[in-house]
Structure formats: C-alpha cells, structure tokens
C-alpha cells in the first residue's frame, strides 16, 4: 500500500488528467505523453515511467503510442478513488486478467504438439534447419546443412533484420536498422519450502523499484503443480538467498516452489551477464519475495537477444516500407519479430499471423491480425479459420 502522500499525488494527477482530456484537441506524440494524459503525473512518476523503462530498456519518450490499444489498461478515476478510500483491492482488469496455461510442458508444449502433427519429411528443426541465405531472385532458401529449398511464395518467421541480412539486400538492411529491440534475460529460481502466504496465489508481480533488476516476477509454481519437483524429491541446497553457503550439501526433501524473473537489456540499458543472477536473487531478498535464509535448490539463466520488438517512434516509418517491399518479392515476413509489431506479438497472435499469411497467399484473404491490431485485440476469435484453410488446400489450389 502506498503512503497517503503518494496516494494523494496519484489521485490529484488522475483528476488533472481527466480535466485536461476534456479540452485536449491533439493526440499524444509519444508514450510518455500518453501516460501523463491518461494517468497523470503522479502515477507516471511513481510507476509508469520507471516500470516501463525497466520493461522496454528505452525511455518512454522514445516510444510511440499507436500500439497501445488494450495492451495498457487505463484507470478509472472514480473506481480508483473509491478503492483508495475503502482500502479495497481492484478486481480483475486488463487483457491478461485471466489466461490459460498448460498443466505440463509450459507454453512450449503447445507448439511441440503442433509440430508433431506436421509431416516429418517436410520439417527440419534445430541448427541444421537454420536459414543462412535467401535468394529472392531465384526463389531459393539455403540451410545451414547446405540444403537448398525452392519456393513460390515464402512465409518467413525469422526476425526481419536477420531476413534482410540473409537476403543481402542493402536497402532492406538499412531500413531495418531503424527498428529497435531489447534483449530479455529469463532467470529461474527454485526454492525449498512451502510457498509463503505473502505470495499466495499470485501469478505476476511488477516491480518499478530500483532495488531489483527484474521488472516482473512470475510465480511459476502457481501455474501448475508439475512446474516443480514432487516434495519427496531430494535436492541439495546450492546457496541461501543471501548468497551464503548452506551448513550442509546433503540432499533433502521438499516441498518446493519456483519463481521466474525477467530482466531487459539494450544499448540504453546495459546488463552485466556475469553478475545478473546474483543481483536478481538479492533483488528477491530486497523486495521481500525471499527471506535471506531461504534455501535455493536450482537456478536458471538464459538470454534471448531479440526479446521485445520496441514500438519506437521510427517503427512504422520503417515497417511500412520493409513489409510491402518483401511482399512484392513474394516474401511474407510475419511473427513477433517477422512483422515487428509488439501489439500482435504474443504467441496466439504469431500463430494467427501465419494462418492469415497463408490465407492471403491462397485466396487473397485480409490479414486482420497484421493490419488491424485494435480490432483483433478487442474481440474473441471464434471463426474456424484453420478448417477453412485446410479445405482450400484439400482442393489442390496452386500456389
């Protein structure tokens, strides 16, 4: 709970923003202006500016705001004021208030299951299937193992800046340099003991503070009981949360619970890879997620170079040239980094970008997800698009 003084600043700022919105006749120029107009300076300074810098690894002044739609939930002044006076927690709100998650295998399990339905002779995963060169003139793709594959129409899901490099197209390479992205560090911590009551059934926790490097903590063990070992499993203690060594390295039983942390990195927000894991564990102590004496039984650290496609001020100027130029060469660049639009960059979006690209190639269907993000994010998709597409293929329509 915020101190009363900070609560007043937030409510004052929201009231000022609501009054100014009545007379505003211009659109905000960037994300920072959007934040102030929608939420006021109090929330902007206390949460939105520091939190979003930790997420995006760029200042909010360098981001556009056309991407927002439902991605950032705007507050209701009356509801916030009521909740503050009554000391009441807000109910479910925002696009991720509820979501589905697999019991086993994480979200990757979904796509492994999808991949298993594909004909094995038409698939090639791993390093041997990595694309090293795309010849748009000859319509061929060269793989890391030396195989050359021909195509009529190409759906590319690799990052569009990688695609430009693989094509050797200097114009596209230059344009893609206008696209900004941040890298993501995913850090996992497994802890011995029952999940603390102070954590409860929470899924995500957000951290604008500067006493921890992560912007989000996911209580991964809350997603499924299969996301941690059974209590009877014996594991040694690697360290205590305060960094000290345990009294014994003998393996002991659980129970266990787990946390997943996310840390951003960019040229504007550098990160020390070698010390980040230790800094993150200390951050868990600083934020009272862990006690100094908690026993850590496992850790994980992986860096994803292309983590978030940044909705920068320059993004649309580049994309509105890159994507049509590629399509004129019979290349549909789609996906989280293939089409570089964060607002339609989640896993479900990326899947539908592929479905709709194929529908567009086969029968000229409109690509709703790519071209109308606000529309697809504001409704539930109930069409049987995959069945329709399969029927078209069954008729043997030529590509």
| CATH-level-2 architecture of the largest domain | 3-Layer(bba) Sandwich
**Overall number of structural domains:** 3
Could you describe the largest sheet, including whether it forms a barrel? 6 strands, antiparallel
Name the helix and strand elements from N-terminus to C-terminus, one letter apiece.
HHHHEEEEHHEEEEEHEHEHHHH
CATH fold name of the largest domain: FAD/NAD(P)-binding domain
Q: In CATH's first tier, which class of the largest domain applies?
A: Alpha Beta
Q: Outline, from the CA principal axes? A: globular
InterPro entries: FAD/NAD-bd_sf
Question: What's the short version?
Answer:
With 399 residues, the chain is an alpha+beta fold. The protein folds into 3 domains: 4-85, no CATH class; 121-176 and 312-394, 3-Layer(bba) Sandwich (FAD/NAD(P)-binding domain), CATH 3.50.50; 181-308, Protoporphyrinogen oxidase, mitochondrial, domain 2 (Polyamine Oxidase, Chain A, domain 2, Alpha-Beta Complex). It is built from 12 helices and 11 strands.
Describe the protein in words.
The chain has twelve helices and eleven strands. It is of the alpha+beta class and 399 residues long. The chain has three domains: 4-85, no CATH class; 121-176 and 312-394, FAD/NAD(P)-binding domain (3-Layer(bba) Sandwich), CATH 3.50.50; 181-308, Polyamine Oxidase, Chain A, domain 2 (Alpha-Beta Complex). The strands form three sheets. A six-stranded antiparallel β-sheet has the order 6-7-9-5-10-8. Strands 1-2-3 form a three-stranded antiparallel β-sheet. The longest helix is centred in the first third of the chain and has 26 residues, at 31-56. The mean pLDDT is 91.
